[in-house]
Amino acid sequence: MNLYLLRHGIAAAKDDPAFESDSERPLTKKGVKKFRKAALGIERLGISFDAILSSPLVRARQTADLLAEILGQESSVDEIPALAPDSSPEQLLSELSSVEGKEHVMLVGHEPFLGELAKFLLTRKNDSDGVIPLRKGGICRIDVDAVPPTQPGQMHWLLTPKQLRLIAR
To answer: Can you tell me the distance from the alpha carbon of 136 to that of 133, in angstroms, rounded to the nearest whole number?
Structure first.
């Protein structure tokens, strides 16, 4: 299975008084504009996702919806609580049984959780020694043998949002 880890686009500041909680912070206009261009880069990679799973937080769901719109897969986005920032890799992987047998699965979420997940998928270790950071709007592809994986996965690529925008040209 190919897992794609995508960090949400640029969102409103954490200290913005317009939003009562972190979960309500949306993408900014700049975030939408930049991610649309990055999503065109993802489209240019020629990947059709069998599932697009999103954190329930507004900014992640907006990012997933923008990607699905660009790819023509609007009805494909599902929210799963285990992609929220306070989750754990083990918790998420136990909830991914619904995508078993699918080849290309997009996971849209947050840092540092996605970095921790990437490290766990690649090393099978859940400790505090390093993570694989993703920039806002960045994506990586990690192939795993199963969900949950029985052995370390393999990273095929990691792309920044700027690289995605360049691919889109």
So the answer is: 10
Q: How far is CA 90 from CA 93, 100, 168, in A?
A: 5, 15, 34
pLDDT, tens digit, 9 for 90 and up, residues 66-110:
999 999 987 789 999 999 999 999 999 988 888 888 999 999 999
The answer to whether 103 and 1 have CB atoms below 8 angstroms apart is yes
- Kindly report the CA angle at 82 between 78 and 83, in degrees rounded to 5? 70
Predicted confidence (pLDDT) per residue in 107-132, tens digit: 999 999 999 999 999 998 877 677 78
Residues 89 and 3 sit within 8 Å (Cβ to Cβ): no
CA angle 48, 66, 104 (to 5 degrees): 25
Nearest-CA neighbor of 137 among 99, 168, 163? 163
| Residue whose token pair is 């719109």 | 69
Structure tokens at 86: 């306070």
C-beta of residue 158 within 8 angstroms of C-beta of residue 4? no
- Any idea what the Cα angle at residue 48 is, between residues 6 and 61, rounded to 5°? 40
Question: Hey, what amino acid is at 46?
Answer: G
Global pTM value = 0.95
